[in-house]
């Protein structure tokens, strides 16, 4: 009887991995329009061929090199963008997701007739009213000062973000101020 034998090598490869290496807060972040997002970085393990990223805002890009994926950039399009990072090639598939929200720049606008007035001592000034919008939650005097003796109530008139359905009105007014 004649016997023959064959030999071979069996290689068991581990599944690919995708690991977030930037702060966990970077995967669910907000940035104002045209401002850079905080870079989001991932490291791959066990040799995937590449990585794909879907759902990024216009202007935000991804680069993959040396096993490291970096998502960075800025967008001029206001919206919320859920994105998915997925490995390609190797054994198995690894996916992670996040959300980038691009918010409009906050605004403040004078809505009363004037912000500059000249009055006599002890005469009231006309109300000075500003409107804040696009997510602004308040306003404060950051330069200069209010003349001594001027007092008043500050309230906000707030416009909602375009994606918000309800209108919440508040007024920012200096009311019945006297010298």
Task: List descriptors.
179 residues, mainly beta, 4-stranded antiparallel β-sheet, 4-stranded mixed β-sheet, 37% strand, rod-shaped, disordered C terminus
State the gist of this model.
The protein is 0% helix and 37% strand. With 179 residues, it is mainly β.
What does this structure look like?
- The chain is mainly β and 179 residues long.
- It is 0% helix and 37% strand.
- It is built from no helices and twelve strands.
- Strands 1-3-6-5 form a four-stranded antiparallel beta sheet, with no helix packed on it. The protein has a four-stranded mixed beta sheet with strand order 2-8-7-4, with no helix packed on it.
- Mean pLDDT is 81; it is low at 153-179.
Strand-helix topology:
Layout lengths: L16 E4 L7 E5 L7 E6 L4 E5 L5 E6 L2 E6 L5 E10 L6 E9 L3 E4 L17 E6 L23 E2 L13 E3 L5
Parallel strand pairs: 2-8, 10-11
Antiparallel strand pairs: 1-3, 3-6, 4-7, 5-6, 7-8, 9-10, 10-12
Which oligomeric form is depicted? single chain
Radius of gyration: 29 Å
Biggest sheet features = 4 strands, antiparallel
Topology, number of strands: 12
Question: How much beta, percentage-wise?
Answer: 35-45%
The coarse overall form would be rod-shaped
Detail the poorly predicted runs: 153-179
Distance, first to last CA = 119 Å
Strand order of the largest sheet: 1-3-6-5
- In N-to-C order, the SSE pattern is EEEEEEEEEEEE
Structural class: mainly beta
* Helical proportion, percent range: under 10%
Q: What is the overall number of helices? A: 0
Q: Overall mean pLDDT score?
A: 81
């Amino acid at each position: 009887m004649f016997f023959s034998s064959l030999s071979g090598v069996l290689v068991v490869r581990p599944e690919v991995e995708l690991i977030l290496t930037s702060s966990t807060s970077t995967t669910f972040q907000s940035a104002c329009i045209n401002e850079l997002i905080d870079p989001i970085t991932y490291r791959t393990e066990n040799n995937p061929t590449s990585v794909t990223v879907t759902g990024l805002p216009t202007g935000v890009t991804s680069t993959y090199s040396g096993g490291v994926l970096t998502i960075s950039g800025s967008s001029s399009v206001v919206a919320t963008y859920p994105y998915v990072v997925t490995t390609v090639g190797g054994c198995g598939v690894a996916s992670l997701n996040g959300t980038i929200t691009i918010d409009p720049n906050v605004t403040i606008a004078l809505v009363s007739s004037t912000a500059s007035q000249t009055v006599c001592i002890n005469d009231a000034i006309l109300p000075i009213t500003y409107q804040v919008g696009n997510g602004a939650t308040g306003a404060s005097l950051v330069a200069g000062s209010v003349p001594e003796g001027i007092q008043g109530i500050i309230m906000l008139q707030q416009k909602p973000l375009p994606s918000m359905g309800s209108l919440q009105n508040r007024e920012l007014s200096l009311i019945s101020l006297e010298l």
